[in-house]
Amino acid sequence: MSDSKNSAHPGQVNTGSPASPVPANTHPEEIVAVQHVFKSVADSTGTLEILHDIDFALAAKETAAIVGASGSGKSTLLSIIAGLDTPTSGTVKLAGQDLFAIDEDERASLRARKVGFVFQSFQLLGNLTALENVMLPLELASMKNARQLAADMLARVGLGQRLGHYPKVLSGGEQQRVALARAFVVQPAVLLADEPTGSLDFATGETIMKLMFELNEELGTTLVLVTHDRGIAQRCHRRITIEAGRVSESSSHFAASV
User: Fold this and answer.
1) What is the 3-state secondary structure (H, E, C) of 58-107?
2) Residue 57 in 3-state DSSP?
3) Are strands 238-243 and 63-67 parallel, antiparallel or unpaired?
4) Which tens digit of pLDDT belongs to each residue from 166-204?
5) What is the Cα gyration radius of the chain?
6) Sheet of 46-59: strands edge to edge?
7) In terms of C-beta density within 10 A (0-12 exposed, 13-18 middle, 19 or more buried), how is residue 44 classed?
8) Count of CB atoms situated within 10 Å of the CB of 123
């Protein structure tokens, strides 16, 4: 089965044709604004600085890859952008809202309305079917026709015949398709993805990334993804490189196929 785990092909996802440049008529509003973010924690040797003065902004429909070596602070930065972790200092604005000027309940409400998530480990609820997993964010957002919207999105990702299946009987690639459907079904302003192909073999990862970029373009989402994969990063409009907790490069470019 091509959807199995396979670590023999790390960092080799060919995502197909290049991403289109951000359209000229893109609304100039900053959907994600990271402003002078620092993050440090205390350890046995004193204070460990994880992020140092991170500063960048993304507009509607932009795609950005956060790249860097393991331990450079990529996933910590993504968690702070989501409001799941708190910076030591600095500001993060999501769709104009300062995440750390509101309480956790308000942040959770904002995430439910504005943010989709895709994780390396899928994060599906094992006691819910594929359909129920995708319905969950719709129900949390009190959206009508949750069942039909979820079924339509699962059909869009090629799982229209798997609605009643539980995660344990789905392959890794199928589980990540369910995760994509769950992330996109609320039509989020921002999609955050953390190594979305890290648990998949090369061929399956290639298919998943092609689907992610297609859905992102169809729905006009701002995409922020953490990856070690050069091919995936080149598919994005922006590449933000983190080295030892600092931005060493923040480039704007038109993606090229590899």
Assistant:
1) EECCCEEEEECCCCCCHHHHHHHHCCCCCCCEEEEEECCEEHHHCCHHHH
2) strand
3) parallel
4) 999 999 999 999 999 999 999 999 999 999 988 898 899
5) 18
6) 46-59, 30-43, 89-94, 97-98
7) exposed
8) 14
